[in-house]
Amino acid sequence: MAAVLSSRTLAIPDTVELAVKARVVTVTGKRGTLTRSFKHLALDLSIEETEDGKQLKVELWFGTRKALAAIRTVCSHVENMIIGVTKGYKYKMRFVYAHFPINVTLTDRTVEIRNFLGEKRVRRVDLIEGVDYVRTADVKDQIELSGIDISKVSLTAARLQQSTTVKNKDIRKFLDGVYVSEKGHIEVEEAS
Q1: Burial of 191 (0-12, 13-18, 19+ CB in 10 A)
Q2: Less Cβ around it within 10 Å: N or C end of the chain?
Q3: What's the average model confidence in pLDDT over 6-21?
Q4: DSSP one-letter code for 87
Q5: ∠ CA(120), CA(124), CA(127), 5° rounding?
Q6: Is the pLDDT of residue 184 over 60?
Q7: Model confidence, pTM
C-alpha cells in the first residue's frame, strides 16, 4: 500500500548556499558550485526556515516502495554536494606490481599507463572535467585524484582501475594494477 506522505529533511550549513528551482538543486560553497537535476523523480523539493537554520525538505505523495527509496537517495546526493563544495574529495591510488614496474604519466588531460605486466600497449584514461591529478611526492607509486564532485572523482578512479584489469590469467596470482588505497577529503579535519 502506498504511503500518503513521506518526507525527509536535510540540514543546510551556514557556510553553504543552496538553491532549488524546478527540481534542479544548486549548491555553492567556498570550493565552487555544483548543480544537479532531479527532474526524473516525482518529488517535491523545498527549502524551509527553522529555528535551527535552513533545511531542505524532500516530500513524496502516494509513493510506492521503490519511489520511497528515492527520497533518501536525493538527500544523500545533496549531502555529497554540500561536502564537495566545503571539504572536497580526494582519492589516493597505488600502483601494485610483482615484476614489471607500472609507469604512469600525465599528458595534457590524459593519464597514460605503460609497461603493465610488461605489455607494449599504452592504456589511456581521460580525466573528467573538474578532476585534478597529482603524483604524490613523498610516497612511491601513488597518485591523488581530487575534485568537488564525488561522482566525477570516483568515476575517474574506477576507469583507471578497470583499465588495468588482468585478462586471461589467474587473478589470484596476478594482482598487478592501479587500486584505490584511500578515500578522503581535500581538507582534512584536525583531530582535537
Answers
A1: exposed
A2: C
A3: 93
A4: T
A5: 160
A6: yes
A7: 0.89
Q: How far is CA 187 from CA 26, 31, 146, in A?
A: 22, 11, 11
* Cell numbers standing for residue 58: 524532500
Q: Confirm if 26 and 78 have CB atoms less than 8 A apart.
A: no
The stretch 124-150 carries a mean pLDDT of: 94
Strand arrangement of the beta sheet that strand 44-50 belongs to: 3-11, 53-63, 44-50
- The grid coordinates listed for 5 are 506522505
CA proximity to 86, closest of 32, 125, 49: 32
Q: Please give the single-letter amino acid code of residue 63.
A: G
Q: Which of 54, 46, 57, 41 is nearest to 21 (CA)?
A: 46
Q: What residue type is 28 in one-letter code? A: T
DSSP 23: T
Q: Where are the alpha helices (DSSP H) in 23-149?
A: 65-86
